[in-house]
Amino acid sequence: MGELSDRLLILLIAATGLLVLLVGWELALVEALEMELSGRVEAILYVAVIVVFVLVVISVWIETERIDEDRD
Fold first, then answer.
1. Which superkingdom heads the taxonomic lineage of this protein's source (predicted)?
2. Would you say 57 and 11 are in contact if contact means Cβ atoms under 8 Å apart?
């Protein structure tokens, strides 16, 4: 496997774990509130989880590229 495929595999594993953690946290928070959220608060939490997930994935990708540049 090449460096790019190794990086993508690591990113896939990290992203999957993070997504499971964030969605589990969000669902537990919604369950703990136990009130009629009318969908708005739940939708806001889903958007927040997605934004955090995307930012972390992008930052991991940038960091792995920076490490590769430092090695050269």
1. Archaea
2. yes
DSSP state letters, 31-58: HHH-S--TTHHHHHHHHHHHHHHHHHHH
What is the distance between the alpha carbons of residues 72 and 59, in angstroms, rounded to a whole number? 20
What does the pLDDT look like over 4-60, one tens digit per residue? 777 778 888 888 888 888 888 877 777 766 666 666 777 787 788 888 888 888 888
The residues near 11 (Cβ < 8 Å, ≥ 6 apart) are 57, 60, 61, 64
The reported pLDDT for the residue numbered 25 is 81
Distance CA 46, CA 48 (A): 5
